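Consortium newsletter contribution from the modelling node. Members have asked for a concrete example of what our holo predictions look like. Here is one, prepared for the 2-acetamido-2-deoxy-beta-D-glucopyranose complex that several groups have been discussing at recent meetings.
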Amino acid sequence: MLTLLAALLYSSASGRAEQLPPPKNVTLKSYNMGLVLEWDPPQNSTGRNFKYSAEYKGWSNFEAECNGTSSLSCDFTNSITSFGTYTFRVRTELEERSSVWVMTEEVALDKITAIGPPYVRLLSRKGEIEVDITDPVLRKSDLSNIYSKVSYVIHYWIEGKLKKEELRGEQRKVMLQNLTPKVCYCVQVQILLDDNKTSWPSNVTCEINTNSDEIKPWLIAMVLVVSSIVTMVSAILIFLVVMCVYKVIRYLHPQPTLPEDFKQYFSEMPQSSIFLAMQNSHQPEELYYEVSIVADQEVPTSQLDLQDTECLKLNT
Ligand SMILES: *[C@@H]1O[C@H](CO)[C@@H](O)[C@H](O)[C@H]1NC(C)=O
Ligand SMILES: *[C@@H]1O[C@H](CO)[C@@H](O)[C@H](O)[C@H]1NC(C)=O
Ligand SMILES: *[C@@H]1O[C@H](CO)[C@@H](O)[C@H](O)[C@H]1NC(C)=O
Ligand SMILES: *[C@@H]1O[C@H](CO)[C@@H](O)[C@H](O)[C@H]1NC(C)=O
Ligand SMILES: *[C@@H]1O[C@H](CO)[C@@H](O)[C@H](O)[C@H]1NC(C)=O
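And here is the predicted structure:
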């Protein structure tokens, strides 16, 4: 009210003959760090081609942004910075005449701006759902450059159920755990900025949870038992096959059979000492002596007798 009064005084001091009616419903709209001033035409303005001028002021003087425009809005996004406070004003103009300025409050862009919804993508695997959050694209900078604390509030629930679970964190990729397999879950995410500011909530996104791949202990035991049985059976089969093949070969190529006596002889042979000796000893060296054969000579009987007598002598 005070600013409006000041503006009225200022414009009356400029000494214009006929005052134009000022724009109505002047409002600042800020979304994702963009800033647009909007207004409605003055009352009773039908049929009059009003023009408007809009200006902004940082810490020094007002600067023109939209000069003599016929549109009912002015976008200041490219002229202002993310931080700092600004005041805006707009007036009606027609030829040389103009209205009083209508001024806004002093505002800080990061405080007044509305942050749009994040984009949420769901991906289910192994019985869990991964929530993939993408920040909204800002007209200026990005969330982490503007707000010192950026966190995410994830609400998820089984489709059609009222009970919602809540998860808070600073990660943009979050796994929802302990979910029921093959059940449709819905997720909605909101961004929490510097304790008190929240983004618009995301669209509700739903996804059917997958089966978990978790291996059950009884399954491991069964696999072990089955595989050992298979191994045993195949070992037996291989043994039988080998036996059969052997027998067939033996049948086709029979070994000559020896009579029982021979078998016994051969089986005993290694035990005979001669055989062993023959096996163990070297070939004996053969010695040759000259042998001469002479005619038979008569042995003197006296000698034979002597021998006999001596024996007799001993005996006597
Ligand atoms: C100002 O806005 C209100 C609602 O936002 C509306 O009812 C009214 O008609 C508007 N005034 C003008 C002059 O357009
Ligand atoms: C606007 O029109 C109304 C009647 O519709 C009239 O009483 C009023 O004086 C007009 N105001 C201006 C500023 O022309
Ligand atoms: C606005 O435009 C007019 C001409 O259309 C010009 O004379 C005036 O200096 C401009 N004002 C600013 C602040 O740029
Ligand atoms: C939300 O859903 C609407 C309609 O399906 C779509 O146009 C919009 O882009 C979605 N917004 C986000 C942030 O995903
Ligand atoms: C947080 O927002 C609420 C209203 O939404 C307000 O009453 C409160 O003062 C705010 N707190 C801080 C620390 O900004």
